[in-house]
TrEMBL record:
Hydrolase as UniProt keyword: yes
Protein name in the entry: Hydrolase Cof
Signal peptide feature range: none
PANTHER family: PHOSPHATASE YKRA-RELATED, PHOSPHOSERINE PHOSPHATASE
Pfam families cross-referenced by the UniProt entry: Hydrolase_3
GO molecular function: magnesium ion binding; phosphatase activity
The organism of origin for this protein: Caryophanon latum
Cross-referenced InterPro entries: Cof, HAD-like_sf, HAD_sf
Highest taxon of the lineage: Bacteria
Any one Gene Ontology cellular component term annotated for this protein: cytosol
Keywords linked to the UniProt accession: Hydrolase
């Protein structure tokens, strides 16, 4: 197989259900790089949330915040965010419903309110502590993604009221708020163009709702067996569970390693 541009989701793809990187996965990534493939991360997490993982895997190309913040070898090649006015309207409406947000920046996350059970519960699954609090942080700082704390059944209220956003659920208490056009697929497209690749050169690996567009846009999309049903439907291949080394098995199947 000629050299490809490989994109890997983090949670449930590179990281197993214990939020750990297995030896088999680490070895597969290294072998793929030795075989000449360009290895990149594509995640809903922010840049600061994957620093340890990137060091361990020696990866310096990544699409973060679901395509909102894209970097190649230290060069920021694409960013996008909701306008200050758009954020103000969403946050004010959410506050009127006692539904907080978390501001996601390149360097940290900031909560709009203290001591909210949903915020604590969701971030604990990522092994992150409760963020510092600054309700108006967005007014004077770039925010690349919002975490909105609203129940699943209330999502439509937001998407109907604010037609310039999309909500992508990642936890029972929370969903990512992105511009309507935002997605990992868009971030990958920007990066592929910069590196001289086409989407026909892209192979993507993921498991979540925020991976659907990426799996569809890539020449080959691979969903782990632990993936969401919609991610499985979008993929070309569904492989074993991440805890059963589905990722390294898939890379062998595709003759990447």
């Amino acid at each position: 197989m000629t050299n490809k541009l490989l994109f890997f989701d983090v949670d449930g793809t590179l990281y197993n259900s214990q939020k750990q990187l297995s030896y088999a996965t680490k070895e597969a990534i290294q072998l793929a790089k030795e075989n000449g493939h360009i290895v990149a991360i594509a995640t809903g997490r922010g840049p600061f949330m994957i620093e340890e993982l990137r060091r361990e895997l020696a990866i310096d190309t990544f699409v973060t915040y679901n395509g909102q913040y894209v970097v190649h070898e230290g060069d920021i090649i694409f960013t996008d965010e909701l306008t200050k006015e758009q954020q103000h309207d969403i946050i004010a409406f959410a506050a009127s419903r006692n539904e907080p947000v978390v501001f996601m920046t390149a360097a940290e996350m900031i909560a709009s309110v203290p001591n909210h059970g949903g915020i604590g519960a969701s971030l604990s699954t990522l092994k992150y502590p409760y963020p510092r609090v600054e309700a108006d942080y967005f007014k004077n700082n770039p925010v690349y993604q919002l975490l909105l704390y609203t129940p699943v059944e209330q999502e439509r209220i937001y998407t109907e009221r604010f037609d310039y956003v999309q909500l992508v659920r990642w936890h029972e208490t929370s969903c990512d708020v992105l511009p309507k056009a935002g997605s990992k697929a868009r971030g990958i497209q920007k990066l592929a163009e910069r590196l001289g690749f086409s989407m026909d050169d892209v192979i993507a690996f993921g498991d979540g709702l925020n991976d659907v567009e990426m799996l569809q846009a890539a020449r080959i999309g691979v969903c782990l067996g632990n993936g969401h049903e919609k991610a499985k439907e979008a993929a070309d291949y569904v492989v074993a569970h991440v805890d059963d080394e589905g990722l390294s098995q898939a890379m062998r199947m595709l003759e990447l390693i």
